[in-house]
């Protein structure tokens, strides 16, 4: 049996006025997901435990079958694991965005959490120049992809109440900035970074071209390195991860899954969808399980762009879901497909929600049509099937219970 987990990050939404009370999933043309829903088992799953932040880190850890309430320490160390950054037990890693701040009257506003989705090539120049001026034995930057980077604080504290920059879009950053004022070393680092970035030739060039400048760093999601038992020990299966973003690749590395790199996988709307699907199927030839993660719907949601979100969902369906359905049928005798969104990213909020999310579970051994409705939040809720957590859903998907540590 082969197991394929497909995650469309942030696909879920609320009913929208501009869509006549429908969600982007209900409006999008998604024959692949609809086929799975009509021939499979559809329902809702609670990926974000009560009281925990509804981020992709928590939700994807949950979908991978690891309970975040026991394993989660922060987003930063997960992404640090993806980048291979060595961390001691006492070190703290922050996810660190390059952002665009804008002065509006007396207020400083978070204009763009991604500095206009700055390219990795441009970001590397800025990060290297900042390190040259600012890095020391305590604080150091590590370059990731696009706007997503890591700030490592060796021997740093854990207790700061940082705010994700995508939660501050269009808002005054004053109160969120107070977290950095609690730690003079960090505040000084960030203030010096702003002064360097504002004058940097690359940013001057971006402004001249009408692009948002990457004029500040925004660290958040900090924590110490988590410990996950290997996926092969927990579930008794070999596996791999296909993703563009360091968050999901980091979860894969921590779970000792092979991380498959795909040329053209960007973590944005221009990603190589089909290449990721084909790479996953190839990896599955010699393994039992594969996870394919696509970030694009979430990025469109953060931008508040309904049309872009619908397009991202349709591209996920056309180039990932349908490719997997067609190719799996030709390659494997028996397989199961679990398709889900990790969390809702409602267009009106432009950030994440902790409400339950839709999933569909398809088994090639029972292909008869079960229902007429397709895949959406509404049909998932109407099914009456509710799974309380990601580990329970993974157990249902893999048709096995997780092994206790002493059994592994």
Automatic annotation (TrEMBL):
The keyword Isomerase applies. GO terms for biological process: glycolytic process. Pathway: Carbohydrate degradation. SUPFAM superfamilies: Alkaline phosphatase-like. Residues 1-374 form the Metalloenzyme domain. It comes from the Bacteria. GO terms for molecular function: metal ion binding; phosphoglycerate mutase activity. Its EC number is 5.4.2.12. It is an enzyme of class 5 (isomerase). It catalyses: (2R)-2-phosphoglycerate = (2R)-3-phosphoglycerate. InterPro entries: Alkaline_phosphatase_core_sf (IPR017850), ApgAM_prokaryotes (IPR023665), Metalloenzyme (IPR006124), Pglycerate_mutase_ApgM (IPR004456), Pglycerate_mutase_ApgM_sf (IPR042253). It holds the Pfam family PhosphMutase. Keywords: Glycolysis, Isomerase. NCBIfam families: apgM (TIGR00306), hyp_Hser_kinase (TIGR02535), PRK04200.1 (NF003242). Catalyzes the interconversion of 2-phosphoglycerate and 3-phosphoglycerate. Belongs to the BPG-independent phosphoglycerate mutase family. A-PGAM subfamily. This is Cofactor-independent phosphoglycerate mutase. It comes from Thermosulfurimonas marina.
């Amino acid at each position: 049996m082969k197991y394929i987990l497909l995650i469309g990050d942030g696909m879920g939404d609320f009913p929208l006025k501009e869509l006549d009370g429908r969600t982007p999933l209900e409006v999008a043309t998604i024959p692949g997901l609809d086929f799975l829903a009509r021939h499979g088992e559809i329902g809702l799953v609670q990926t974000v435990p009560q009281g925990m932040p509804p981020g992709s880190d928590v939700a994807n850890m949950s979908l991978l079958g690891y309970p975040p309430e026991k394993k989660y320490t922060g987003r930063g160390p997960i992404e640090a694991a993806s980048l291979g950054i060595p961390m001691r037990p006492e070190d703290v890693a922050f996810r660190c965005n390059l952002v665009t701040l804008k002065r509006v009257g007396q207020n400083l506003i978070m204009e763009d959490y991604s500095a206009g989705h700055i390219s990795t090539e441009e970001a590397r120049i800025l990060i290297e120049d900042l390190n040259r001026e600012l890095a020391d034995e305590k604080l150091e930057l590590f370059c990731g992809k696009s706007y997503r980077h890591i700030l490592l604080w060796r021997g740093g504290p854990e207790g700061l109440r940082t705010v994700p920059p995508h939660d501050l879009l269009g808002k005054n950053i004053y109160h969120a900035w107070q977290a950095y004022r609690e730690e003079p070393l960090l505040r000084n680092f960030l203030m010096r970074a702003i002064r360097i970035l504002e004058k940097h030739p690359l940013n001057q060039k971006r402004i001249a071209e009408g692009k948002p400048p990457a004029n500040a760093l925004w660290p958040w999601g900090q924590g110490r390195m988590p410990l996950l038992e290997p996926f092969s020990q927990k579930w008794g299966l070999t596996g791999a991860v296909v993703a563009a973003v360091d968050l999901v690749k980091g979860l894969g590395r921590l779970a000792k899954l092979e991380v498959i790199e795909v040329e053209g996988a960007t973590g944005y709307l221009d990603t190589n969808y089909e290449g990721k699907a084909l790479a996953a199927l190839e990896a599955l030839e010699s393994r039992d399980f594969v996870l394919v993660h696509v970030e694009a719907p979430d990025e469109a949601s953060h931008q508040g762009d309904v049309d872009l979100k619908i397009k991202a969902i349709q591209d996920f369906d056309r180039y990932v879901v349908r490719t997997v359905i067609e190719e799996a049928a030709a390659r494997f005798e028996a397989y199961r497909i679990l398709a889900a969104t990790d969390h809702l990213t409602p267009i009106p909020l432009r950030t994440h929600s902790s409400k339950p999310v839709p999933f569909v579970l398809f088994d090639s051994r029972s292909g008869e049509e079960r229902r007429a409705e397709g895949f959406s939040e509404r049909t998932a809720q109407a099914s009456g099937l509710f799974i309380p957590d990601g580990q329970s859903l993974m157990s249902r998907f893999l048709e096995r219970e997780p092994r206790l540590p002493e059994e592994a």
